[in-house]
Amino acid sequence: MPESQAAPAQRAGRTRRTLTARMLGVWLLLIAAIGTAGVTSATAAPQHAGHHSAHPSLEGVWDLTVTIVTPDGGSTSTTPRFVFHADHQLSAEGPPDTDGRPQYEAHGFWNEKSDGTFAFYVTHPGRADGAYLGSVQAVHMGRIVGKHFSTKAYAFTITTPGGAPEGPINVSSTAVRVSYSAP
Fold first, then answer.
1. How far apart are the C-alpha atoms of 160 and 83, rounded to whole Å?
2. How many CB atoms lie within 10 A of CB 23?
């Protein structure tokens, strides 16, 4: 007996639902990892300039260099300033445009472990001249070493509300501490 084959429209719809379900699963897994990563450090006091610790807290102000892999396989960089607040929220501003205003503003949350590892989630609108258009969402995982940190991340962009995201996009960052306290 010949095998039954789904019509192309049915296969396309099933593929779209499968990809959306997979992406949702990936995001839930990453959010769970961030939540779990901070359970042991959520009650720990942050380490500031006066405290000498092998792994100081992420709390404070950091200048980042974020490198994004572009669709053509090249890369581009941006230099935002991140503020990691004591309540585990974060805010960031992209480099200034020609009028002196930030090219973008970002928000998110973060958590860390006592061994210097951490994770943060960040979202911001894409730039019209950026490598990727649309709303950007990324999860970074990294380690603090002294007054520096580095991360590896995966980002997704959404260009149409309710539309399928583009990604994962490889991202990395390096940072240097500006201040031990958030403004």
1. 29
2. 15
Give the phi and the psi of residue 16 in degrees, each rounded to 5: -60, -45
Strand segments, DSSP code E, in the chain are: 60-69, 75-78, 81-84, 89-93, 105-112, 117-125, 135-145, 148-158, 166-179
List the one residue out of 29, 32, 73, 33 whose CA is nearest residue 170: 73
163, amino acid identity: G
Query: Has residue 148 got a pLDDT over 70?
Result: yes
pLDDT at 55: 61
Helix, strand and coil in the chain, % to nearest 5: 15, 45, 40
What confidence score (pLDDT) does residue 45 get?
Answer: 38
Long-range contacts of 15-18 (CB under 8 A, 24+ apart): 16/164
